[in-house]
Amino acid sequence: MLTQQQLQARVEYISREFFHLPFTDRAVYNNRLRRAAGRFLPATMSLDFSVKLFAGYTEAQRDDVIKHELTHYHLYRMHRGYKHGDADFKALLARVGGTRFAPAPPASDHEFYYVYQCQRCGQKYPRRRRFNTNRYVCSKCRGHLVGVAVVSAAQLQAEGLIG
C-alpha cells in the first residue's frame, strides 16, 4: 500500500508519462469511499482514492484506476467531455491504456457468517449480520428460525450456500 506522499508522486508520474501533462492538484486517500476505487472532484480539482480497495489491488490495477481518474481530470481542465459516456473520455482512456471500470474488489472481508436454520424444514440461511429470529420466519414453510452457528466463508462456499 502506498503512503499519501507515494500516492501523490505516483499520480504525478503517471500524468507525465501517459498524458504528457502535469498534475498540479491533490491526490488523497479517502476512508469513506467503499464502492468506488477513485473519484475526481471538479469543485476541488482533487482525486480521491479508496483506502480499502487500494489495499487489495495490485500495482497494475492501482495504475489503471489512477489513469481512469486522471482522464476525468485532464479532460475537465481542457473543457472537453470528461464524463463516462462522452466520446472524448472513451478515446483518451483507450489511448492511455486505462480501464473503463474498476477492477473487481478483493475477496470479501467478511471472514464469517451467521447461519440460521428453520426448525421445521431445515432450510439454512447464511447471513453476514445477526438478526432477531422472533421477527422472521422461513421463506419456504414459515417455520421458526434458530441461530445454529458462526461459520467461515470458506466452509459455506464448500457447502454451496454462498457464491
UniProtKB/TrEMBL annotation:
<dbReference type="Pfam" id="PF10263">
    <property type="entry name" value="SprT-like"/>
</dbReference>
<dbReference type="Pfam" id="PF17283">
    <property type="entry name" value="Zn_ribbon_SprT"/>
</dbReference>
<protein>
    <recommendedName>
        <fullName>SprT-like domain-containing protein</fullName>
    </recommendedName>
</protein>
<dbReference type="InterPro" id="IPR006640">
    <property type="entry name" value="SprT-like_domain"/>
</dbReference>
<dbReference type="InterPro" id="IPR035240">
    <property type="entry name" value="SprT_Zn_ribbon"/>
</dbReference>
<feature type="domain" description="SprT-like">
    <location>
        <begin position="5"/>
        <end position="148"/>
    </location>
</feature>
<dbReference type="GO" id="GO:0006950">
    <property type="term" value="P:response to stress"/>
</dbReference>
